[in-house]
Automatic annotation (TrEMBL):
This is Pseudouridine synthase. It comes from the Bacteria. Belongs to the pseudouridine synthase RsuA family. Pfam families: PseudoU_synth_2, S4. Transmembrane segments: none annotated. Signal peptide: none annotated. Its EC number is 5.4.99.-. One of its GO terms (cellular component) is cytosol. GO terms for molecular function: RNA binding; rRNA pseudouridine synthase activity. SUPFAM superfamilies: Alpha-L RNA-binding motif, Pseudouridine synthase. One of its GO terms (biological process) is enzyme-directed rRNA pseudouridine synthesis.
Amino acid sequence: MERLQKVIAHAGLASRRKAEELILEGKVKVNGKVVKELGVKVGPNDKVEVNEVPLEKEAPVYFLFYKPRGVISAVSDDKNRKVVTDYFPYINERIYPVGRLDYDTSGLLVLTNDGEFANTLMHPKHEVDKVYVAKVKGMPLRESLKKLEKGIKLEDGKTAPAKTRVLSTDKKKETAIVEITIHEGRNRQVRRMFEAIGHPVIKLKREQYGFLTLDGLTAGDSRELTPHEVKLMRTMASTDPKQRRM
C-alpha cells in the first residue's frame, strides 16, 4: 500500500506536490469515490482516476547506478546541484533512488519506480547488508574496530553490530583503508561511526548492496537490473535475516 499522491507521481502524471493539490481539489477518485484526504493509501488492485481519466501505471524499471562524488541522491535539488536522475535523461519513467548516499560518498545506488520494491529493501527489519570501503585518518586498533562490531552509541542511538576488516594501511600518510558492512541506513552513519572512534573518514565508497556489486562499472555508469536480480533482491529482503546469515 502506498500514499495516493505518491502513486499519482510515480505514474508520471504530476509531481508529488501537484498530485496533493489535485487530491485536495477533489479531482481524484479511488474506486469511483472522490478522495480529498492526503493520508489515503491505495494498493495495486485499486482503480485510481485523475480528472475522470483512469491512471495507467508505469511498467516497473530497476537500475544499478555507480554514483560519483558530488552528486545528490535525489530527483531534484533546490540549489541546482547535480542529482542522480540527471544521469538518466533517456528514461521516461519517474525513477528515484532507493535510500541515499551522501553528497561526498560514491558507490552503488539502486533506482526504480517500483515503490513496493523500494520499501521492501529500505525497511530496517529486512536488514539488507551494505558494504562500504572507507579511507580513514590514522590506523584503527583492533580494540577500536571491535566497538563498531558490537555497536556504538551515536547521538541518535546505538548502532547495530557491524563487520569490519582492515584492507591496508599507510604508515607514511597515517591512513588506513577499512571495509565495513552495516544494514542500517541512518544519515551519514558510516562517517559518524568512524568519527566516534577517533578516525574521521577521508573518502567513502559503497561497494556492495545485498549481493549487487559495481563490477564492470565506472563512476557515472549504470545498467538495468535483470529480472533474476530483481527477484533475488525481493527474496533476500523478505527472508528472515537470521536465516540468511546461517
